[in-house]
Amino acid sequence: MEGIFHNLGIGFVECFRLQDITLWGMTFSHVPFNIIMCLIGVLLGTLIGVLPGIGPVATIAMLLPVTFNLSPVAALIMLAGIYYGAQYGGSTTAILVNLPGESSSVVTCLDGYQMARQGRAGPALATAALGSFFAGCFSTLIVAMFAPPLAEVALKFGPAEYFSLMVLGLVSAVVLAHGSLVKAISMVILGLLLGLVGTDVNSGVLRFAFGISELADGIGFVTVAMGMFGICEIIGNLEQKEKREIFTSKVSHLYPTKEDWKRIWAPVLRGTLLGSALGILPGGGALLASFGAYTLEKKVSKYAHEFGKGAIEGVAAPESANNAGAQTSFIPLLTLGIPSNAVMALMIGAMMIQGIAPGPQVMTERPQLFWGMIASMWIGNLMLVVLNLPMIGMWIKLLTVPYRILYPSILLFMAVGVFSISNQPFDCFLMALFGLLGYVCAKLGCEPAPLILGFILGPLMEENLRRAMLLSRGDPFVFVSPSKPISLGFLIAAAILLVIIAFPALKKKREEAFAAEDT
Amino acid sequence: MKIKSQQDFWAGLMFIAFGLFFVIVSQMHYQMGTAVRMGPGYFPTVLGGILALLGLIVLGGSLAEAGPDVPKFHFRPLIFLAASSLAFAYLLKPLGLMLASAALIFISAYGGHEFKFKEVAWLTVVLVISSVVVFVWGLALPFPVCPSFIESCPIR
Lengths: 519, 156
What we know:
Mean pLDDT of chain B: 84
Helix content of chain B: 55-70%
Strand order of the largest sheet of chain A: 1-2
Helix content of chain A: over 70%
Number of strands of chain B: 0
Largest sheet of chain B: none
Order of helices and strands of chain B: HHHH
Radius of gyration of chain B: 24 Å
Shape of chain A: globular
Oligomer: heterodimer
Radius of gyration of chain A: 22 Å
Low-confidence stretches of chain A: none
Number of helices of chain B: 4
Number of domains of chain A: 1
Distance between the termini of chain A: 45 Å
């Protein structure tokens, strides 16, 4: 325990470190710059997260260029802030407008919106905020506790272990995708292939570039993410006629009653525990956590009959769980360098842009960065509670802005961001192209998230496969040989997952779970 | 032969096309190498092959099992959104951030349900000013603000 507090101490010191900053030609001395970036990230994240129809992936992709000029610590702290800010904003929209800002607040819509209709929007929002805060505190501790031992194990991984781990990560991501399993696997492989575009590290050969010099460094993942998530989401929203019913005037009293408090503490606790556990799993994260928590709560709650009609437990449990899951999904990222979901894939990309190779060595080589980021999660959660409850009025105002005003603004931000990556028009062209691909995929019932994961992992996987094969002198059984028990274990786990999910009875269950989400 | 699931049929075709594309290009241009020393063509060929195979499975399934139709395509937002980001990208260097943003806003707004000129004009004014302040002055992005043919532009 002592070690944890020592490490968290390093983190807090880093967060509040006073720096000299030069902005607009003026030098400001002794500014706690990192914590200011955390605040800005949290606010920006909430702002964009509140807007209906932009999920956290598009939000982070959109705001990523803002962090390009920052130091690595400040950039990652800000991005983490944007992430849980977006989570937060998403639940506000879910409760007030019945539009999930993102997939993980889909279940919050069920009971949160009903509460709003009964004039209890205030307590619903407060419950979501306080539950998330509790979950955030708890899961930050979990991250601090489990990350170091995991990183130690991961340091012993060779290329074979890494390759197998990535296979496991991709398989679990596939299992959690909507709809057809084969289609999801195909999307992963398409992502892997697109990730190979550009110069091959081993031979220096330019692959799939067709003489386009802008493709020498490969396709930027921000470009792919903005096209497949951002542009697609806008088109999807434009397809539907605008109809929104917002409970603006009805948010009068915020704080839950005594009766509410009695009803929410147990669901918050259960949601937090379940969410933390599910978040660590590769492919897990906020989405699985919130669904799991809602289902669990419906089974164990005394008030099960009220679910779907405005039960406060139906807000408390999934909101705590998705925040806990969102935080603990940083564990595989920080310790193994493996993203567990599309948001974490973006974080990996951000780390690479900052010149940090994600993996177990980050913790030992750059403790300030690692622990600073973890400490900032706790501070960011505190900021969200302190700032957002009083600011709910402002967020509601934002919700009344019509979409026809919002989307050109969002698009402008995306275009500027993509353009600024390499200062070339070509990236915007690619963004439009991936928007088209994403749109076609959506129409054909193929999820974009597995593609993004595959896209990030493609070059890493090829690299590790090549190295493993070189070390084993071309023996393909190196991944399953008894001398590599960890690699074997990962592959067995991946195989078991695939078999389980292909099993007819479970397949039906999985479809039911996703069908419930769609309604 | 009857297609029972339009969605899967087209998805399968798409995957086969992508898979074959990567296999053929790799085979034509890049060395395969051996399993020990993989050439640049090895990984894409294997993956492309798997993708094409999976596409075949999806395609086969679409003939056997009933599934949903492909939802209607809405070309209007798709075309206008794509056009607006292209216009922005290719106008930014010659015409500067202000005019390029204005072009993006007008073209993309035209792709929506209703287009109110006055409203879009106001939106353009607000966004152009704020994007110059935020992106050029705040974040110091190296964008030209004014058209390149105006040599002595007061704002930069």
